[in-house]
């Protein structure tokens, strides 16, 4: 392809469960959830993308690029990526260069840049209906853009930002900060509610599927379950019930009855959202000598957790490269899946027992949780993968990396 072309495209192809949790007989509809959140009283308180030439069969793995498109508008590490929920056709990425872009997954064309950030953009995601996209930087500047008009419709500045998440059914944004507070806004009106923290970082958080509660983990190891409508905590887990180190990640089961938290203490805790009780603790350390356990505690941590939607399984990913798959029914370890480098993030397919991981060696791997075997792996990045996301059908993965690139991988579909 001619060097003179500006927009070049190089195409290339061990404890018992101590309670049984009843599920609700009728699940609320999205309209019900959106109406519930509306009742909350807030008054209280075109260039730069490319695809690569196909390499020969004998290409070294380090140089191998399995991706179908490379987005290269960022000039620093790419920290976050998200796909629009409605069509999965748009991606938003944020990076170390203080920039965020909304771009097309099919050809890498930039729809618009989310301008005005003054620090690394570490959070970026679309609203439930793909109408809005929110970007947040480390300094705490949050901006919301209307996708259709490409216009900024709202912005706000909080303390140093730790995480940010959209409500599953409404234009409501939740964010946790380094001072321990959790903020909730209606967008674009900006009506605001704050959930006062303990004075230490609100390190991770997630809105539960019912849209009425959120689980938040803190730097001191405490886990709080917040009632978003009332503005108070329904459950607080601390001391032996909480973690013995900062909470790093949280996930919830599809029906919202269980949450799973991970921590620097190398443990994952299974918690009932109805009672606030710990119903299980997962750890791989029990099989190691005490000396190794102590050494490992300084270098290892739980980085990502997740529930399988189709089998009673959970997955826990560790910084030492261990992927552990546990049986929820017996709380026993089913499989240990070793990685060559630390795992950054895991994600289950929505409707199968296949599990995806990305790691510090720059690879995406697919695992079959039934057998514990790796199905396949995808290479292409020259540095660590810092985030990734799957489309609904699990036919496409979009990755964000320290090599200043985001990549689109078209995934071969193994037997589900």
Features:
416 residues; mainly beta; five-stranded antiparallel beta sheet; four-stranded antiparallel beta sheet; disordered N terminus
Topology:
Layout: H1 30-38, E1 49-50, E2 69-71, E3 78-83, E4 90-95, E5 100-104, E6 110-114, E7 121-126, E8 132-137, E9 141-146, E10 151-157, E11 161-166, E12 172-177, E13 182-186, E14 192-195, E15 202-207, E16 213-218, E17 223-227, E18 232-237, E19 247-252, E20 258-263, E21 268-272, E22 278-282, H2 290-299, E23 302-307, E24 313-318, E25 322-327, E26 332-338, E27 343-348, E28 354-359, E29 364-368, E30 373-378, E31 385-390, E32 396-401, E33 406-410
Antiparallel strand pairs: 1-2, 2-33, 3-4, 4-5, 5-6, 7-8, 8-9, 9-10, 11-12, 12-13, 13-14, 15-16, 16-17, 17-18, 19-20, 20-21, 21-22, 23-24, 24-25, 25-26, 27-28, 28-29, 29-30, 31-32, 32-33
Q: Briefly, what is this?
A:
With 416 residues, the chain is mainly β. It has two helices and 33 strands. The protein has a five-stranded antiparallel beta sheet, with no helix packed on it. A four-stranded antiparallel beta sheet has the order 3-4-5-6, with no helix packed on it.
Query: Quick check: average pLDDT?
Result: 87
DSSP, total strands: 33
User: What shape does the CA trace take?
Assistant: globular
Low-pLDDT sequence parts? 1-25, 50-59, 286-297
Structural class: mainly beta
Helix % is under 10%
Q: What value does the Rg take, in angstroms? A: 21 Å
Q: How far is it from the N-terminal to the C-terminal residue, by CA?
A: 39 Å
How much of the sequence lies in strands comes to: 35-45%
Number of helices: 2
Give, in spatial order, the strands making up the sheet with the most strands.
Answer: 1-2-33-32-31
Major beta sheet summary? 5 strands, antiparallel
